[in-house]
Amino acid sequence: MLEAHSNGAVGVEVIAPGGSRRFVLIEETPFLIGRSGETAKHLQLKDPRISRQCAAIVCDGERYFLEDRGQRHGIFVNGEKVARRELQDGDLISFGVENFYELVFQSALHDTTSIPELLSRIENISSSDAPQGGLQKLNLLLEATTLLHSRLPLEAVLGTMLDHAVSVTDADRGYLLEPRAGGPLHVSLARGRGGTRLSSTESAPSQTALQQAIDQQKSIITEDLAQGGGSLQAAESIIAQRLRAVVVIPLYATTRASSSDSAVHHKRGEFLGVVYLDSRRPAAFSKLDRRILDALGVEAASIIDNARLVERERERERMEQQLAIARDIQQALLPRGLRDFPHAGIAGINLPCLTVGGDYFDFFPLGEGRTAFIIADVSGKGLGAALLTTMLQGALSGIRIGIEPARVFENINYFLCEHEELARYATMFLGILGRDGQFEFINAGHPSPFLLRRGEIDEPFTDGSYPVGLMPGAEYASSRVKLQAGDTLVLFSDGVTEAMDPDDNLYGGPRLREVLGDLHEATLDHVQKTVLASIKSFTRGAAQADDITLLLVRYRA
After folding, report:
1. Which of 18, 94, 303, 477 has the most CB atoms lying inside 10 A of its own CB?
2. Residue 481's beta-bridge partner residues?
3. Per the domain annotation, does 329 fall within a domain?
């Protein structure tokens, strides 16, 4: 077990694809990273696109190194593929996979003076340098840092942070300005002394001072403009408002490091905005205040960055709630459990790989001793695919009222092709089984169901047309076969045959045929459980990239 660094904890900030962040301490090395198991016991990133044994961070004295331990797509530091690399504070670690986790190595070795460091040095600041109340000002700033852990709304966090900045510096006014896409900075918050709110119509910040700070990428701090000379003294807004002291602090997100062959260069992170403070009193910002203001820039940037992350996390939670509602609705629209008709037994199950999925199945009586059943697979996953499956389910219900199935398919294809901005298509298989065993079907680009008959397995339903929504003007026609008593149809989505194990091997059609080989006389419930158990055993817990849907139909004469 490693001792903690004397100047702070060492760890990695884990940035999820959705933007949420968490910090993981490196308390033991080698620090193992991967998908699952003992080879990823310190940091598990559960996704089938990376290897179980992926990477490790090891310590050599005071230095930390990243090692590739078998990641199939490679390990990258600041965009450069590496086998072994010494890590610097702020290095960005990625895994050669798009829309995936990223890690930021943090050694807690920052050059910028932090608030705790300022407190530790307070005894070294002479009384002549420190105005009365300096310690109280530092305490105020420390209170502001507690906002880093706040889950208050973004506006409340930023307002409190700005009030603290005004109080710490004893300024007359304080502004928080944020960048606007393709435009100038705009005032998002304005505060006066004592926490009073200033209206946006009141005197605006000095644009000259703002531009200087942004151009120079550093704070502008003046104690007496009347004595300073230069462009600020001559600025019209400063003259008109009789300003004597101005502070402008550009705010940047957590720095990242980029590497080259010769050295590591630290670059500024995303520009977050500006804290602007001014006063009509000369020397309003004392020598101690200047040191406080240097730290304020770091803390304010961290507060804003963190507050935005909290806001995004809240938005993610709201989205998850909406997805949960969508999942409940989608699952409620699926048929439940086994269903027996006089001439057919039916069973089915749908297992989405995400909260909501793009697969669905349905079955319903048509009258005159006929029963219809459908399985469909919409391209893509997630909420967009789920919305389209619901639309398809409604459109296919037209078959219930006697519309010819082929015309229903053609109308769905026309609708999806006409709305090409949807960028979605769907494979579908529709079957209609009569009491006499006559079986009518339409295959719109879907994998052929298996037919289990007297110890043999066949695929007689390959005839068909394009998936709906893929080819404008595609024509669809029914085909017919005669089923025999005891015949079982096994319909499935490609999520079954394309299920992957941890080594990215596919489950495949031959393996499914082999499992079905001994199940001709088994109950449908047993067939379903056996197939799902086989898939589970094969995948060994690997996350799946597609929905798994299974529909079983058995004809009884």
Report:
1. 303
2. 439
3. no
